[in-house]
Amino acid sequence: MIRFSRWTPAGGVLALLLAGCAATGDAPPMRVAGAAPAWDAPGNRNPLLPGYFADPSIVQDGGRWHIFATIDPWGSRQLGLWTSENGRDWSFSRPEWPTKAAATTPDSSDAMVWAPSVIRARNGQWFMYVSVGSEVWVGTAPSAAGPWRDANGGKPLIAKSFAPEYHMIDAEAFIDDDGTAYLYWGSGHNWQNGHCFAVRLKPDMVTFDGEPVDVTPANYFEAPLMVKQGDRYLLTYSDGKTTTDTYKVRYAVGDTPFGPFQEAANSPILVTDDDRNVISPGHHTIFRSGGQPYILYHRQALPWVPGRDEVLRQVVIDPLDVRSDGTIANVRPSHGGDVAGFAAHRTTGLGWTASGTGGDTLHGPDRAADNNYATLWQPAAAGPAQLVADLGSVRQVTDSELRPEFADRAYRFGIDVSTDGRQWRTVVPVAEQQGSPIRSRLDASARYVRLVFPEGGAAVWEWVLR
Predict the structure, then answer these.
(1) With the C-alpha atoms ordered 193, 195, 196, 202, is the resulting torsion angle positive or negative?
(2) Each residue of 427-447: b (16+ CB within 10 Å) or e?
(3) Contact predicate 352/390, CB 8 Å
(4) Dist. CA 135–CA 116, nearest whole Å
(5) pLDDT digits (tens, 9 = 90+) for 120-136
(6) Residue 215 Ramachandran class (φ > 0 left, ψ -120 to 50 alpha, else beta)
(7) In order of start, what are the domains of the chain with their CATH numbers?
(8) Are 401 and 342 in contact (CB under 8 A)?
(9) What is the DSSP string of 145-165?
(10) What are 68-109's pLDDT values in tens digits?
(11) Residue 117 and residue 165: Cα distance in Å, rounded?
């Protein structure tokens, strides 16, 4: 039997929901790919989330999936939280804790909030371990949805001074078969490999039960995650540099939660692929849905630009094979195809063709209608921009759902409608809004729907009309 440090049972009702999930409405128009890279195809299922996020942690609670993640580039003053009932259509919010103001000391300097790990304790209470600077904080909540609050008296659980020559980040909790909880953490400095520390936790999930020990396996940099298969303990982790093309997932095997750990013969199991369609996959979690194990991780947003200052990563999901002999099969990173047992399709709404303010070859208007979160519409020129959806005939349009490039940033836009493409009527006045999706009520009879950004700043992953 497999035990996962972030796994919670999906339950019969949710499993049936996931297995039966299918797209509604008309299919989006197909684009002739030609020599396009594998990630640039309409309908691709990966990335899972529309935007730039990293270090994901996923749990299921109350019939909903919750993904907690770092907001790129390099964190924000809060975490990102994505929720979904079907595993494909996700809504963005930000949990009330932690914030940079509430979880900080002088040692955290100007570093933001990143690398959350969420787990449900045996008593039903939820706990979050999160990094701010080179410190680990712990919070608690009655449900994964919150409300979250500090659980350690307003001070870090692991201070920078514990081992100042390494980063005290990326804490991950694991609950063993007997109910005993453990915490793993640690990262290197200046992209040099670091050390992994582990400690047993008391039932309160906050107090250390004994002294931390060094359990560092070979080729360890950061992001430890424990998986148990039978009586073997599989410590999975990342090494390499996330800003280049060397980041990857490795694993090592031990007979106890404290090791000693021997790196597996087939490690690493997830790397940059030969055709450069997947760049620097890592900082993962492992969970189960519908009886199938999955690995959820981040990789570089594409097209990848080597040497850029901003690191922009996206969250993706792939099936995982944890074998009965305590080994993990190499992961085949994907872009398209169904994700069995999780959910096969996003809701695409009404079919439409795109026109409007152009972009370069990879960022034209059609990218906002291709049901692919690896591609987005982004006009090259500064200034006013517009995106026009042609429904093909006059139809009743009730709602608009817009997924902008950055879910945590504000955009000023309005929406107009027309039956002939010449006379337009405003149904959503220009105003500043943020979120993902940004929902607007239209209630209009129209063939054409026009999205207007009067000051520019337009960048859209997908625009769904219903």
Answers:
(1) negative
(2) bbeeeeeebbbbebebebebb
(3) yes
(4) 12
(5) 999 999 999 999 999 99
(6) alpha
(7) 2-319 (2.115.10.20), 353-465 (2.60.120.260)
(8) no
(9) T---EESSTTS-SB-GGGSTT
(10) 999 999 999 999 999 999 888 999 999 999 999 999 999 988
(11) 23
